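Dear colleague,

Thank you for sharing your sequence with our group. We've completed the structure prediction you requested, and as agreed, I am returning the results in plain text so they can be pasted directly into your records. Please verify that the sequence below matches your submission; if there's any discrepancy, let me know and we will rerun it promptly.
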Amino acid sequence: MAIEDLDEVMEIERLSFVSPWTGRLFEETLGSSVSTSVVMEKGGSVVGYVILYAVKPEAHILNIAVHPKHRGKGYGAGLINYVLNHFKLQKVTEFFLEVREGNIGAIRLYRRYGFEKIGKRKKYYTETNEDAVVMRLSLPG
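Please find the predicted structure tokens below.
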């Protein structure tokens, strides 16, 4: 992800989340030494992205989204595949994320990759009072 991608990323963000990240937050994340931000493109347009912080041996997936008109086509799985393969090579063995309890599709996707529910954060999403499911994937060292 580069600054030039932010208009398309922000559009996906606004279409995907009740409380979207601000452009400033994306810029700060891009400038962080522990952050990795990746876009997936099709035909020169951004169709999805993932942002995570990684400090060996852990990574925390902060944000992942696919444009609504491109969902159900494997792009989310492609982003997860990329993250897992890229960071395995860097000796990251623990992955964490939070997901809305009601986001069954995302939970199903994460479980397909071996993520397990390890907890719940009550009313984590303050705009809707929805709980977050905390998930972890542990890979062999």
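Summary note from our side: Helices lie at 6-16, 23-30, 75-88, 104-112.

Kind regards,
the structure core
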